[in-house]
Amino acid sequence: MANINEVIANVDKLDHELARQIRKYVRDHNYGLVFEHNLPEAVRLYTKTVAVDDTVNIRPERGKEETNENKVAWNVKAVKEGMATIENGEDEREVAVEDLVPIVSYHDVIYPGLREVDRVERGNKDDPYQVVINAENYHALEMLTYCYAGKVDCIYIDPPYNSGAKDWKYNNDYVDDNDQYKHSKWLAFMERRLKLAKQLLNPNDSVLIVTIDEKEYARLGLLLEQLFPEASIQMVSVTINPSGAKRENLFSRADEYIYVVLFGKAHVVYPSGDGKTKEIRWFYLRRTDYASRRGTSKGGPAQFYPIYVDDSTKKIIHIGDPLTPEQSIDTVPQIPGATAVFPIRDDGVEMNWGLTKKSLKPLIEKGFVQVSEGNPLQPYIFKYVSTKYKQKIKDGRWEIIGEREDGSKIIVEKKRKNYADYNCLAKQII
Q: Is the pLDDT of residue 378 over 90?
């Protein structure tokens, strides 16, 4: 297809005025996320008194489910003695006022207000307080713009996920999976509310947070980019079910998504450490999973060998050679005053060590292996330091502050005051 400018140039040769109008349309038209801007949603005002010129629905009979007829919009022509004359362009009828409910479309200007229904006072009068607004969220946001436009620091939105279940309505009707306009209705629904959120947020320093799952996350991302081109937008995932929610004939899903929209100078702040230290985590040398037992391919024969511990000093003095699959542990050479230790579980299952002899030896020499009392099947228990110790010490994250009686080092992790704790950050955001 030819470039749009080339097409306009060809039109210009035939009709200069038409080409000018096309150029203006192309310049002014939004070519971002394209979706059907469905008719604005409507909300029923059950507590409003029916008046002339109101738009209304006829309520269903008491105790009966709503039908399509109850969703038809009527205009009130007259109200007299508890009866209303209503018409919809094709029909006119008289209905009892108590059987009508006014409806208001979101494109109509309304002037909402708040009416206090209850309060709980437990703190000091000067302390910050919270307000729960029970309302349709669009009108609640619209009302707040009268007092707090440009003053809000943070807005968190947890919208309907458009799953096809009865989790949200559009124009007083549930949107289901068979609705051809389900995505555009959802986008129109979100766009109206996000535009109000934009009016409320402080453009110089604020954040908008929106949670979503995989059904609409891609469209939501495009909508946010279109509505907030000046902001910094990032999507992060959050684990909601570590074991994964099983779904028929599909992969299980363990996470959902969070869009974080940062305005002005707003940015992620990593919490500072307190400067204190704590001992690092040491790993057990004996493998724990049954798949790593002796005789399996996981680890192989190279990781089943004796480690000799001096019974008086409780230090490792020698590492024996790996045993062949047929060789019994009783056949290994003995060292006077020392015990040959193999990786054997409490139930007698012979396991593998987590490291080969070649990898373990330099760790012992550097004091990166601990020795502690065990049980009759495995008289001594060994722990070792991650092989990434060199880089962590070089980076200043780990520090050696002493030595134990078994010759192993005492290593601590330094929580510097400017250290970024990512796990803590994730918990704060969520």
A: yes
Q: How many domains does the chain have?
A: 4
Tally: H helices and E strands in the chain: 8, 23
Both 410 and 281 in one domain: the answer is yes
Chain centroid offset of residue 288 CA? 33
Whether residue 125 lies inside any domain: the answer is: no
Cα–Cα distance for residue pair 161/197, rounded to 1 Å: 19
On whether both 62 and 165 belong to a single domain, the answer is: no
Residue 18 structural domain: 1-31
CA distances from 214 to 80, 194, 226 (A): 53, 19, 19
List phi, psi (to 5°) of 196.
-70, -40
* C-alpha closest to that of 26 among 40, 7, 41, 43: 7
Burial of 397 (0-12, 13-18, 19+ CB in 10 A): middle
Tens digit of pLDDT for each residue in 94-131? 999 999 999 988 777 777 788 898 988 888 888 888 88
Pairing of strands 409-414, 277-279: antiparallel
Q: What is the pLDDT of residues 382-406, one digit of tens each?
A: 999 877 777 788 777 788 888 888 8
Q: Looking at the structure, do residues 201 and 88 belong to the same domain, yes or no?
A: no
Amino acid at position 138, single letter: Y
Residue reference for tokens 């292996």 = 369
State the CB neighbour count (10 A cutoff) for residue 410: 13
For residues 55 and 25, state if they share a domain: no
DSSP state at residue 308: E
Contacts of 243 (CB under 8 A, 6+ apart): 252, 254
CATH number at residue 186: 3.40.50.150
List the beta bridge partners of residue 380: 373
How far apart (Å, rounded) are the C-alpha atoms in residues 405 and 310?
13
The average confidence (pLDDT) of the chain is 85
Distance from C-alpha of 246 to C-alpha of 254, rounded to nearest angstrom: 9
